[in-house]
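On clarity, I found the account of how folds are encoded harder to follow than it need be. An entry of this sort, consisting of the sequence and the corresponding backbone structure tokens, reads as follows:
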Amino acid sequence: MTESFRDTRSTENESMLAEISLGACLMSEQLGRDTFDARVLDAMRAVPRHAFVPLEMQPHAYHLRPLPIGFDKSIANPLIVALMTDVLRVEPHHTVLEIGTGLGWNAALLSRLARQVYTMEIVDELAAEALERLHRNGFGNVELLLGNGAEGLPRHAPFDRILVTCAPQLIPPALLAQLAPGGRMVVPAGLPGEQMLMLVTRDADGHARVADILPATFGEMDRAELSGSM
């Protein structure tokens, strides 16, 4: 990679981050403040989005828009990713479960914030491609598993944080059960056209509470995964 290419991508990334910071101001009501956590922005600065999109999408990698990645899947709008990651409040000692790896960008971001990230993908080809991209870019504290995201990953539970990047109609009970006391889960859920991005918190006694963040539009959780929801 030439220096000029790196410089161009770095400039595009900084422009994206400036737009994201502006977006935080516009989302101040949902955030309770007018800026995203500096650690989240630093992670987005350090993880090149263009490295986690198909080659033909790289010219658009730093635009505030979702991008197709194949198999009727997409990589989410960076502003929404920043919001979800900020609300998740990941700490350096946390173990995080992500549902819906895609090509690995979200998992890479989370790996900059957490001790360990487990990420699940149901599409074989995407999982293989994501694993190669994560390894190529040096994200060693991410373990990628092929499987049904609605079932979660009970053998590694409980999780301090859970991030779901595809939308079930209802929050899968298995994911609720695998959220640790004091944990937080960010998940979009609902019928197509009626989805809501939500924050699930579990208190020290294990009681779960759900709060709406904002209306959202995400790709639906695959039918094979939806069978795990109630």
User: Anything to note?
Assistant: The chain has eight helices and nine strands. The first helix runs from residue 3 to 26. The radius of gyration is 17 Å.
